[in-house]
Amino acid sequence: MSIKRRGELYRDPSRGKIAGVCAGLADYFDMETWLVRILVVSGVLLGMGWFIVIYIAGWFILDKKPSPAQKMKSNLKSKIVSSDKNTVPDVTSESIKVKSRIWQAGEPPKQAFHDIRHKFKKLEKQLRGIEHYVTSPEFTVSREINKL
Length: 148
What we know:
The chain is mainly alpha-helical. It has two domains: 8-67 and 96-106, no CATH class; 108-148. The protein contains six helices and no strands. The radius of gyration is 23 Å and the shape is elongated.
């Protein structure tokens, strides 16, 4: 049995309807956002008013989820500081989540397959460019100049 490590709990206002608390909980527990919203609304309608108190507390306590641009910027800064200048950031290393049950977060298998094919086509294009450069006379000349 493998234990999946969860990330940090944030609220996600970009995907949220009011403050993004349900969207953040859905990300944290790897569930669909609509299911978490239904559970919260059902709890409120069934007379469990403490759901409202917890939601408002989550609104004020939880930090906003950092945007992908902020994450990439911080990752690039750490890579630049920790490595040499020849390192190229790996943009295609994002993982694709495939959902096996309807309540789980992620992409349907058909969409995930499409995304994976797109990534492989992009990688193949990059590889062809590298191969074209390595087999070109320009590469040979620059290598000979660097040997001097």
